[in-house]
Write a structure and sequence with these properties.
Strand content: under 5%
Number of strands: 2
Distance between the termini: 106 Å
Structural class: mainly alpha
Radius of gyration: 28 Å
Largest sheet: 2 strands, parallel
Strand order of the largest sheet: 1-2
Oligomer: single chain
Shape: elongated
């Protein structure tokens, strides 16, 4: 057999990658919601490239394009931002049913208060903004549960200095409409009883 040496993987501080740089094992990345295809895609590109601009590949494409002569000698830097980007690209391209299945493996109770169709629609809305399945689950909570805490900061974002005036105008308009409706009903009722 022939052996080859792959380049060392360094942390962002350019020191040997170790536990102090973050997740220490593949299982910890799985718990964080990274899917195997995205992680394999990212790891394959550490110290190797296919010689094209294409960065998102599934396992079959990686096998087909891999060439030992394109492995670099220089050490590779483990960049969590790049991993997140590659992971987000995999999620964006993935079928919603597959994502739902993988989410339920990670957390079997996600979205069970709603039907599957609803969950798939939520996934469709959130997946393009999600780095991991865990990220997708966290950012979809408001589709499944009411907020329990309102911070002053959130209220300040929504409640502007003229919000009270707008609310009063809207309520006044609504009440005028209701008053007109009641008046109209009473008028019709009175006319009706006059002719009976």
């Amino acid at each position: 057999p022939q052996f080859a040496h792959l380049p060392m993987i360094l942390g962002e501080d350019r020191k040997r990658l170790s536990k102090r740089h973050g997740a220490a094992s593949l299982s910890s990345y799985k718990k964080d919601g990274y899917q195997p295809g995205a992680l394999i895609n990212y790891l394959a590109f550490l110290g190797w490239n296919p010689g094209t601009e294409e960065e998102i590949m599934d396992i079959e494409q990686l096998i087909e394009n891999f060439d030992l002569f394109r492995v670099q000698k220089k050490s590779a830097i483990f960049d969590i931002k790049k991993l997140n980007w590659i992971s987000s690209q995999h999620i964006s391209r993935q079928d919603n049913n597959t994502i739902l299945k993988n989410i339920r493996i990670l957390n079997s109770s996600w979205g069970i208060i709603k039907d599957e169709f609803y969950c798939l629609k939520v996934i469709e809305l959130i997946k393009s903004r999600s780095n991991t399945l865990l990220h997708l689950m966290e950012h979809s909570k408001y589709f499944f549960e009411d907020p329990s805490i309102f911070s002053d900061q959130d209220i300040d974002k929504i409640w502007q200095h003229n919000t009270t005036d707008i609310k009063k105008q809207t309520n006044a308009g609504f009440l005028r409409t209701v008053d007109m409706y009641i008046f109209f009903i009473l008028l019709i009722t009175e006319i009706y009883f006059k002719f009976i």
